[in-house]
Amino acid sequence: MNQWKLAVPVLACLAASAVGCAAEVDARPPNNVQVGVAPGGVGVGVAPVAPVAPVDQPREVVVQQAPPPEQVEAAPPPPVGDQVWVRGHWHWNGAEWTWRRGHWEVRRHGYQWIPAHYEQRGRSFIYIEGHWRRM
Length: 135
Known about the structure:
With 135 residues, the chain is mainly beta. The protein contains 1 helix and 11 strands; from the N terminus they run αβββββββββββ.
């Protein structure tokens, strides 16, 4: 018998048995992942959510084209405790407008959530990121 004909099934068995060996895994999502029910209660949404740090001067970006029309998004019930709904909005990524879905953010006491918004100044649109402002 050719040694390779025997080696392939042996290696396959070893690989299959190794797959069954696993260390204990923490199934909780990391802090930067938002888990929740999609709008309308259909399916589960998992999306990375960068924590929004409190700022007094938000970043302003000059954009030469208007954002698309707003999308209507229903806020699902908050997953836990004292949270603020950060509504979805069009975000300028440096090349195009991309939709950022709404998500729940832990309320920061002593701060007010200011949603992302746009201001038209002349022919330009100024995109102002959502931010926490000290009250």
